[in-house]
Amino acid sequence: MAPDDTIHLAPQTGCGLRLGRGDTLRVISPTGEQVADVTAFVAADVREWLSSGRTIDYAGCLYVKVGTTLYSNRSTPLLTVTADTAGRHDFLLSPCSAEMFRRLYRIEGHHPSCFENLATSLAPMGIAADAIPTTLNLFMVVTPDPVTGRIDIEPPSSRPGDFVDLRAEVDLVVGVTACSAELTNNGTLKPIDVEIHRTHA
């Protein structure tokens, strides 16, 4: 079925959009090996947002897969994963930011970041930068060591054309990025495509 809306995210960019209850957001990695950060806020009250902690707690799993419900900080179901062709996604790391690039990579000049792209895209929808939580990291592969707890970031799980479908359980404001961190994306920054499949009464 053809999407109702499509958005092409060039490398290191992001967008803000609205989903109605029952709408499906499809996030596509057109060239493979590219992470997409996703966050969401309840449209009726943007003080309610996507919670990594509650989602992991209620699922009893670090990873997100078909059938996983994504919860808010108030334990409201926000999104459900209804399709997934890549198979590995998580909530383990926050969106890359200017501070992260300074602390971890010693980059002092401006570097595009998911946090900046989300803040810029969501500001017109009433979302303050300080409200942006840990994001759902689609296609990201972070592997914790079972003994030490240290983490390794591996190449993204997506092959060309892989996608994830997320069904909105309430009306939402959503942010999506094509992740800006070179290490996360196996050294090469690539685009992300977004489709919105809306319910029609």
Descriptive report:
The chain has 201 residues and is mainly beta. The chain has one domain (5-171, 180-197). Helix content is 12%, strand content 34%. It is built from 3 helices and 13 strands; from the N terminus they run ββββαβββααββββββ. It has helices at residues 52-59, 98-105, 114-122; strands spanning 5-9, 14-19, 24-29, 36-42, 69-71, 77-84, 89-90, 136-138, 141-144, 151-154, 162-168, 172-178, 192-197. The chain has a 6-stranded antiparallel β-sheet. Strands 2-12-4-8-7 form a 5-stranded antiparallel β-sheet, with helices on one face. A two-stranded antiparallel ribbon has the order 9-10. A hairpin with a 6-residue loop joins strand 9 and strand 10. The longest helix is centred in the middle third of the chain and has 9 residues, at 114-122. The radius of gyration is 16 Å and the shape is globular. The two termini are 16 Å apart. The relative contact order is 0.36. The model has no long low-confidence stretch (mean pLDDT 96).
Question: Which descriptors would you attach to this protein?
Answer:
5-stranded antiparallel sheet; 6-stranded antiparallel sheet; 201 residues; mainly beta
Q: How many strands, which pairing sense, and closed or not: the largest β-sheet?
A: 6 strands, antiparallel
Per DSSP, what share of the residues sits in E-state strands of 2 or more residues? Answer: 25-35%
Q: Look at the helices and sheets and give the structural class.
A: mainly beta
Cα distance, first to last residue? 16 Å
Taking Cα atoms only, what radius of gyration do you get, to the nearest Å? 16 Å
Strand order of the largest sheet: 1-13-3-11-6-5
Secondary structure tally, helices: 3
Give the total of beta strands.
13
Point out poorly predicted stretches.
none
Inertia-based shape? globular
User: What is the count of distinct domains?
Assistant: 1
Overall average residue pLDDT: 96
Helical content class: 10-25%
- H/E element sequence: EEEEHEEEHHEEEEEE
